[in-house]
Amino acid sequence: MSAGLTTTSTMNTSTKLQLFLIDNLIWVLVVVFFLLNAALTPRFASYGNIVNILYHSAIMSLLVLAQGLVLINGRLDLSIESTLGFAPGIAMLLSMRIMPGLVGPVTAIFVTLLIGAALGWFNGVCIAKLKINPLLQTLATMIMIRGILLFIFPFSLFPLSPVYRWAGAGRLPGNIPVAIPFILIVFAVLHVVLQHTPFGRKFVATGGNPRASYVSGINVERMTIYAFMLAGVLAAMSGLLAAGRQGSVSNAMGEGMVLLSFAGALMGGASLQGGTGTPVGMLGGALLLGMFSNALNLLGVGPSLIYASKGGLIFLALLLDRARMRRRSYLLHKEQVEALGIEGISIHKQDEKNRRKDT
Predict the structure, then answer these.
(1) What is the CA 219 to chain-centroid distance, rounded?
(2) % of the chain exceeding 90 in pLDDT
(3) Long-range contacts of the stretch 180-187 (C-beta < 8 A, 24+)
(4) pLDDT at residue number 14
(5) What is the pTM of this model?
(6) According to the model, what pLDDT value does residue 342 have?
(7) By the 8 A CB rule, do 286 and 197 touch?
(8) Are 105 and 164 contacting, i.e. CB atoms less than 8 angstroms apart?
């Protein structure tokens, strides 16, 4: 019996280790990809290039996190790429043209975030309350606000206030862009919220099993609205960084980024089935996207092949999601079967003891 218990204990530890590796596979890929390119790609591992990778990953990383939060909730959001351009565009229009005396640079930052939250709230209400399909709802929002942006801004709006640009263009000692610690703080805060607070546990549970969450007393509709509002705010933050980095607001900001954010979130541990993923994992997904793009540029790969490679990366993310979920399901099922078997053996032995006592 002692030997059987030891084997079960070892198996439980093995299962936990495998599940941990599955959940953190992205960081294994990040380390392997970095080491390979450090050895094979010229100047890839230099200090300046590492800072460059982190800096140029900042905008995409916030979109990956936004998409990841919605995926955790069991939905997806196509509108975040348009929110990236729309939120800072409207805020700067108010600040520079319509109400320059009332909406200063600092106020414009808050207006940017508020617009992102409002767009997310709109999507969330339509999906949670009106039961509109998330794909169709966010696609409609994406097209609608991109069209408004094209109408309002036929040309770029510039120059922007240095205060508004600071998050995207400012530098710290060591020539480190402000955007790098900025996104690290955002990821750290949301990681703590999702992993170590009652709100976070309810949020993740809602995506994993909405019916069970509803039965247990969680307001599933409210959690869905919160997910889209958070995604809208993060997309607006991404637009704030993009506007600051380029020193202007253009109607093309964010175009073509949503599918890569989807790939980054899936590689970072989120799933199409909902209920899985962490902000730390999604940061790894964003870094892998950034390193991938940087390595191709350093190797002199043409724009057409880079575009095709990004499509391949999205396909790889989908395959990785399926493989990861199948392996996780297998391990959990195997663990449950073994636990039931051990429980049955224990009950049988207890019955034998009781019979002996009776005789």
Answers:
(1) 23
(2) 71
(3) 180/51, 180/54, 180/55, 180/58, 182/58, 182/241, 183/58, 183/61, 183/62, 183/283, 186/62, 186/65, 186/234, 186/237, 187/61, 187/65, 187/279, 187/280, 187/282, 187/283
(4) 79
(5) 0.89
(6) 61
(7) no
(8) yes
C-alpha 169: how far from its chain's center? 23
Tokens of 24: 């953190």
pLDDT tens digit string along 315-356?
A: 988 898 888 888 888 887 887 787 776 655 555 566 666 666
Helix (H, G, I), strand (E, B) or coil at 157: strand
**Residue 188: CB partners within 8 Å, gap ≥ 6?**
279
Packing angle of the helix pair 303-358, 279-298 (nearest 10 deg): 150
Please tell me what DSSP assigns to residue 161.
P
Exposed (0-12), middle (13-18) or buried (19+): which is 32, by Cβ within 10 Å?
A: exposed
Model confidence at 246: pLDDT above 80: yes
Taking each helix axis from N to C end, the angle separating 279-298 and 25-40, rounded to the nearest 10 degrees, works out to 20
Cα–Cα distance for residue pair 209/13, rounded to 1 Å? 26
Residue 335 in tokens: 């663990």
Q: Percent of the chain beyond pLDDT 70?
A: 92
**DSSP structure string for 66-123:** HHHHHHHTT---STHHHHHHHHHHHHHHIIIII-TTTS-HHHHHHHHHHHHHHHHHHH
User: Smallest Cα–Cα separation from 168: which of 238, 81, 90?
Assistant: 238
The set of long-range contacts for 9-18, using a CB threshold of 8 Å and a minimum separation of 24, is: 11/335, 11/338, 12/335, 15/331, 15/334, 15/335, 18/327, 18/331
